[in-house]
Amino acid sequence: MATRPVEVFGYLPVSGRPFHLPLTISERKVLLFLGDAGAMLVTLLAVLRWRLAAPSPLELLRSHTLWFGVLVLVWSGCASLFGIYDLGRASRYRSSVRDVMRTAVIACFAYVAIPFVTPALHNSRLTAAAFLALGPLAVALWRLTYVAVLARPTFRRRVGIVGTNGAGRTMAQVLRQFGRAEYDLVGFIAANGAGGTDDPPGPVLGGASELPEIAQRWRLSELILAHKPSEEGADLVRGILSCQELGVQMTSVVGLFERLVGKVPLSRTGGNLQTVLPLDRSRGPSYQLLKRALDVLVAAAGGAVALLITPAVVLAHRLESPGSLFYRQVRVGRFGRLFMVFKFRTMRPDAEADGPKWAVENDPRITRTGRWLRRLHLDELPQAFNILRGDMSLVGPRPERPEFVEQLERAIPFYRARHAVRPGLTGWAQVNFGYANSVDDSLVKFQFDLYYLKHMSLFLDLFIALQTLGLLLGLGQASVSRPATDDETFDDLVRLARESA
User: Fold this and answer.
1) What's this model's pTM, rounded to 2 decimal places?
2) HEC string for 325-360
3) Residue 232 burial (CB count, 10 A)
4) Is residue 393 in a domain?
5) Which of these, 138, 134, 154, lies nearest to 35 by C-alpha position?
6) Are 250 and 244 in contact (CB under 8 A)?
7) pLDDT of 311-367, one tens digit each?
8) Which residue from 155, 195, 303, 494 lies 20 to 30 Å from 404 (Cα-Cα)?
9) Are 128 and 185 within one domain?
């Protein structure tokens, strides 16, 4: 017997809405970007028409396409720098307006400052002031409209979770923490009967044999498949296929977790290599060539900066902590090969007299000069030489020391997968989590590394580079604290590693 849903996680899932248009995560992000860019373009058109006696908008677009194309590019760069397309923040009035206003102000100033390929707005103070004032206002009004209309339940996806086991409970927690803006969880469907044997954190709508009726009754847009393989009986298979025929989207726990959290949930892979590696994605030589060109370009600029600041670093070290200027350390690179990484020294010369140790917060071994170098991330600049030599890339998993790699390979499933690419100066794990100072932290970072390995592309590399720049300048959003192992302990993963070895 199906039960009526009650309030789950702070919202009330109700049926019988006269209108329901569920938007996917990617559709929401595209819509936000188009609205933001459109507001900026409309503002520019209005200002040009008002102050410069420009022709009709269509004629202006045709005759000066470059002006508007550059504005979209500037907006794209600033938006990536500030990370303003977090859907959770975009669905709240205060955070959405604050983020987008700050981004729009920087984008407008940057656009006005570009010569030759943008209109000479600065020739008239009133014109420049109008664009600088109206651009952020227009984008803020669009974001207020988005929150007022498109963040409402009518446009959220109504989902049911198939399975009342640990995976289903974990997925409910993930939806509550990361998917409130996009999903309404209606309830659970017991895969092994009408009532189920577990106690999920929400209503059970019925059993596997009732799936088509449940999907229609509660207008489900999506089913999250969290059931155990042993529960996949004839009723469940028939129900899933019938729901698919009705247009209900089927989503795996691992797939949705990746989209919402940005990492691969190792505790839910069950030791299955196919869910970890990018088996269905191929990257041709064009990506490798473009990535290498970007590496060389950025490394050359970083090397020049390193040469400029070297005299100041030498003087500071001589006054505080005499010793070598550079710190050399063996790291594990692509294919498991060892290489020597170079950094400006930030610790006392005898920092590891007793052997390798994990770095800790407020590490007493760090010198005052080293603390400033680390705070500004200037200690990493000599690694430009490693990038030019081909040991490292600009973007990729951070290289680890062989002593720690040996320990992590024994503890974490598939840890060697990160050695399939060049290690990076920055990476997806760095912008989402930061530095690791324990095996548990390394586990969390590795799940982000796996996400990068599965989805790596030139666009993702550029996005990570811009996010890193934003964090260095103090402009980007701080990453959200994310659970390390979902609802399982680290000991469970160690056991899984040993079983899958």
Assistant:
1) 0.78
2) CEEEEEEECHHHCEEEEEEECCECCCCCCCCCCCCC
3) 16
4) yes
5) 138
6) yes
7) 888 888 777 777 778 888 899 999 889 999 998 888 876 666 566 666 656 677 778
8) 303
9) no
